[in-house]
Amino acid sequence: MTTDLETLATALYVKIDDSLAGTWRSGRAPRLTDAELLTLAAMQAVLGFVSEARWLRFARVHLAVEFPYLPGQSGYNKRPRAANTLISRFIRTLARDTDLWHDDVWIVDSTPVECARSRPTVKRSELAGWAGYGYCPSHSRFFWGLRLRRLLLSTPGGLPITWALASAKADEREVLTDMLAGDRDLLATHPGQTIVGDKGYVSKHLDAFMTGHGLALLRPSYRNHKPRPGEHLLKPIRQLIESVNETLKGQLDLERHGARTPAGVLARIGQRILTLTAAIWRNRQTGTPTTRSLIAYDH
User: Fold this and answer.
1) I want to staple 259 with a disulfide (CB 3.0 to 4.6 A). Which of 76, 113, 243, 265 is the partner?
2) Which residues are within 8 A (CB) of 270 and not within 5 positions of it... i.e. 6 or more apart?
3) Are 19 and 90 in contact (CB under 8 A)?
4) CA–CA separation, 203 vs 175, rounded Å?
5) What is the pLDDT of residue 55?
């Protein structure tokens, strides 16, 4: 790894290890600690290793000093899937530790997460019943999989606030309502937020929900409707959304997650969201200028 990546890995490990200090867990302590596990997962995503077997071979050669013990492929495969709650917890922990957390504007957006292409794979996939067919306007094609819904901060950092995976057929207005209603701590600590969305969030029910929770929804109107206040401010925000999408799909290989089970999909996507959050967190700490790709580490 380069010096920048080693610095990011060290800072992330220390942050997680300090946060877990004094935490009690039942059973025998694992030889690979939780802090080491999450740091390894983040480094795997940054360095572009989709295959866990290839990643472990690389880590044993190049990271033996930093990580004296590495489990076998089967053991390493199970640990992130069992740590989904822990991954979500530290995404929020890192986000809270940035100045971007206090921004008063959020952006809601979704992006496809393809899970299969052939019909036989769709029929035998363990994701059947959760994943479904959907349409991706940006690629002008249908896909079978999920949609990743995110709340992002409307700043050049694009910091993830919260996220959810839902079927490609799910109504994104209902998903947004569930995301907000299910995270009462988020609403309690951010009263009066403005949420920016696209035309897919046109709904009287959603407007009433936002008003009832002290939130404001800023979205474009249909052509035959009167323009909404502040609508002219929405166009520049698309650039931020596309930058985050490019980071997740380009640098972090979101579309090549390779997971075949619900727990696996959650772990792989959570790993990438954690990596993006960690990179932004470290950039804000060090004062590194934000780039289009958001992750400013040359590897």
Assistant:
1) 265
2) 80, 84, 87, 88, 91
3) yes
4) 13
5) 93
Q: Pick 280 or 220 by higher pLDDT.
A: 280
Contact present, 146 and 266 (Cβ < 8 Å): no
Q: Rounded to an integer, what distance in angstroms lies between the CA atom of residue 254 and that of residue 163?
A: 14
How many residues are listed for the chain in this entry? 299
105-159 per-position pLDDT tens digit = 888 888 888 888 888 888 888 888 888 888 887 778 888 898 887 767 656 567 8
Contacts of 66 (CB under 8 A, 6+ apart): 9
Look up the pTM and report it: 0.85
Helix (H/G/I), strand (E/B), else coil: 151: strand
Taking the CA atoms of residue 130, residue 131, residue 135 and residue 139 in that order, the dihedral angle to the nearest 10 degrees is 140
Instruction: With beta carbons less than 8 A apart as the criterion, state whether 41 and 269 touch.
Output: no
Alpha-carbon distance of 9 to 283, in angstroms, equals 13
The values of phi and psi at residue 161, to 5°, are -100, -50
Which residue has 């596309």 as its token pair? Answer: 242
Q: Say if residue 228's pLDDT is above 70.
A: no
Q: Cβ distance 243 to 250 under 8 Å?
A: no
148: its two tokens = 């990743």
Please provide residue 108's backbone torsions phi and psi, each rounded to the nearest 5 degrees.
-105, 135
Residue whose C-alpha is closest to residue 38's, from 97, 79, 99 = 79
